[in-house]
Amino acid sequence: MVEVSTKLLTLNEFLQLPETKPASEYINGQIIQKPMPQGKHSKLQGKSVTVINNITEPKCIALALPELRCTFNGRSIIPDVSVFTWNRIPLDENGDIANTFTSYPDWTIEILSPDQNQTKVTNNILHCLNAGCEMAWLIDPDEKSVLAYPNSKQPIFCQEPEQLIPTPEFMGDFQLRIGELFSWLKPGNI
Predict the structure, then answer these.
(1) Phi/psi at 17 (nearest 5 deg)?
(2) pLDDT exceeds cutoff 90 at 9
(3) Which residues have CB under 8 Å from 97's CB, separation 6+?
(4) pTM (2 decimals)?
């Protein structure tokens, strides 16, 4: 019997590796490749980024970014949507947005893909919340539901079309109902 030695990579070693497609995350010493996004996932992700940025960016409140690598507290994860409040956006020496984000997002949004493990996604959400993230969403397109995770509070299950989905305080009076969120899946529905 041949014993094969498998050396675990450190976080720094992982960060030196070339990016993969789809992206890989570093969680508890393991490299886990995310599933390739599919149609519903991509539509909800793109529309979420657009809607959030249309509200927050002109007023310098926050910035929503898709598929952004966030490295903090021993992990390197890539939420589907990462929202950073304005004063927490890292900048380079020219005042441009930095390439490297070494902190948790203020709002993390994950969109469940059909072949994705909900427990692993929830684990990343909890990692963000434990680090200081204000709000997290887990969107399930197949169930047309959202699990909203306000920091330090009980998760809220949202599935009724008229139900308002909780949002972070920095979003002000922005309101989004479950029915409106999932209406984004219909092509041409603005």
Answers:
(1) -70, 155
(2) no
(3) 63, 89, 90, 91
(4) 0.92
